[in-house]
Amino acid sequence: MERDWSTEKEVQIIPSLSIPMAELHFRFSRSGGPGGQNVNKVNTKVTLLFEPANSASLTLQQKECIFNRLANRINQAGQLQIQASEYRTQQGNRNAAIDRFATLLRGALHTPKKRKKTVVSKKAKERRIKLKKTRSLLKRSRGRVAGEE
Length: 149
What we know:
Elements: E1 10-14, E2 17-20, E3 24-29, H1 37-41, E4 45-50, H2 60-69, E5 80-84, H3 90-109, H4 122-141
Antiparallel strand pairs: 1-2, 3-4, 4-5
């Protein structure tokens, strides 16, 4: 179940970054799909718009990271757009869009740990060679006997 964002003043992305709700803009439109008269009358589809370049919450490095990793989701106007229309209520879709936004930014700002190179120990190498030799002997013993044919 999604979190209810109606009372929140900011969206927590990572412990050191939260984006104020004032930086998020919402557009509402009619949603397609099943739902009967509700779909035809009520604007339940939500489009969340966020402009990373104009955000006061993001550092220059974070902005660069977002533009690099989410380039295919940012339009010509420099807006990150996220749509939600899976719920029948506007509030449900609004919450879903904000959750998706937070997850997307969290993923874009995540830097994987640097891999430490490891060295295979001498004992492990010897064990591997010993196993290969025993396997080789086993397979060789399955061969044909010298006097048969």
